[in-house]
Amino acid sequence: MPKIMVNLEALAHNAWLVGLVLKKYGLAGLPVLKGVASHPVLTDEVMRAGFNRLGFAEIEEPFLFSPDHPTSREGRVLIQLASPSKATRVVEVFKRSFQSMPESLEAVAGAAVGLGLEHEVIIMVDLGDNREGLPPEDVGQLLDLALGLPGLKTVGFGVSLACLGNKLPTFSDLEKIAFLTDLFRDRGVEQPVVSLGGSVFWNFLSQIPSGLATEIRLGDPFLLGRDIYRDQPLAEGSFRTDVCFFSAEVVEVKATPVNGAISPPAGCVDASGGRRTRALCEMGRFHTSLSSASANLDHLSCERPGVVVVGLTAGYVAVDVTDCPVPVRVGDCLKFHPGYWAIAQAFRNPLVQLEIRGESRARQV
Predict the structure, then answer these.
(1) Which of 252, 244, 261 is nearest to 316 (CA)?
(2) What would the mean pLDDT of 135-147 be, rounded to a whole number?
(3) Cβ neighbours of residue 283 under 8 Å, at least 6 residues apart?
(4) How far apart are CA 297 and CA 300, in angstroms?
(5) At what angle do helices 171-186 and 139-148 cross, to 10 degrees?
(6) Is the dihedral of CA 77, 78, 84, 87 positive or negative?
(7) Residue 149 pLDDT > 60
(8) Residue 182 banded pLDDT, cuts 50, 70, 90
């Protein structure tokens, strides 16, 4: 059974750095740790750094690992659209939710009245990524409906980029955001929440005029420490990239003939006399959700020098160990740095063991 390991010290560093940068830009941060299914140990670490509200992608996400999540209803925001049939549960669990359809708005309003609770809503706007939300020109009618429904408090609007259409933010998007801000103010929402998502906006922060946005939804700066959309380091500081990693034990090592199907890894000069040394580790697509296509192995790398990932099957990762300075043997545990989707799969997979390492060194901004 492979392990997914979490380095709390690295997570605490990233959380502190995120808070420091957001303070510089005058923005609130909404951590969205859906990549680790909002595991309470990790979310608690982020909250220690001063974040008192969290975004959740699924209604039952706060309770996946424990009925006692460190957040309360007041600190929970549902960032993914929920069907009208889930309205009562949404209002029970979350203080705020993202909305884009009149049917869902009416259902949530009815649930809020029935429960005797006030529920805050963010109207989602589509800036061209083609995921959730209405086009900017169609938002006014839905906003009027939301403002007129009992039990609801409409607090602002949100946008998402690079989630479906892989659209990066542009200055044209900022013009649309300014238009929407004026629209909400004209309708009586004096200080609208302007929620930018997701982490793709981080390396664009310096381009956003002061005061245009109020909140940014983030996951990658906490968990990965890298801009996965542009495949480059995150701006504004030295982020740790060792928050999460896999450990998998070697179960087989053997010499393999080089042929049409088995060839040296890219960039390696084959001086092995026609044979390469391959190892199998007890981790595969069942555990990481990655495709076996080589193009999709780029974000899974081994920590040990000379080990190159060359393939995945259902239950194994195959690595070329021919050029390792220290020979790899059966029983060795190799550490792998995963990409976002491998982390997400591991935290939702009962066949992957979770291990928390390192001491918390949380610092508030």
Answers:
(1) 252
(2) 97
(3) 2, 246, 248, 315, 316, 317, 336
(4) 5
(5) 40
(6) negative
(7) yes
(8) very high
Rounded to the nearest integer, the mean pLDDT of the chain is 91
> What band does 260 get if pLDDT is binned at 50, 70 and 90?
very low
DSSP 264: P
The residue-averaged pLDDT of 296-321 equals: 87
Residue 18: HSE in the Cβ half-sphere, 13 Å Cα cutoff? 34
Quick one: tokens of 130? 């083609």
With beta carbons less than 8 A apart as the criterion, state whether 19 and 49 touch. yes
What whole-number distance in Å separates Cα of residue 258 and Cα of residue 277? Answer: 10
Asked if 204 contacts 229 with a C-beta cutoff of 8 angstroms, the reply is: no
How far apart are the C-alpha atoms of 140 and 183, rounded to whole Å? Answer: 7
- pLDDT at residue number 301: 87
Q: Report the alpha-carbon distance of residue 134 to residue 142 in Å, rounded.
A: 9
Residue 294's pLDDT band (cuts 50, 70, 90): very low
Residue 169: DSSP 8-state: P
* pLDDT at 288 (0 to 100): 86
What is residue 212's DSSP assignment? S
Pairing mode, strands 96-99 and 76-78: parallel
- In angstroms, the CA 338 to CA 246 distance is 7
The DSSP code sequence of 4-20 is EEEEHHHHHHHHHHHHH
pLDDT at 261: 47
Backbone angles phi, psi at 104, to 5 degrees: -70, -40
The answer to whether the Cα torsion of 148, 153, 155, 156 is positive or negative is: negative
Q: How far is CA 26 from CA 12, 47, 206, 275, 337, in A?
A: 21, 19, 12, 58, 33
Instruction: Report whether pLDDT(275) > 90.
Output: no
Q: How many CB atoms lie within 10 A of CB 102?
A: 14
Q: Which of 72, 143, 87 is nearest to 119 (CA)?
A: 87
Residues 6+ apart with CB under 8 A from 261: none
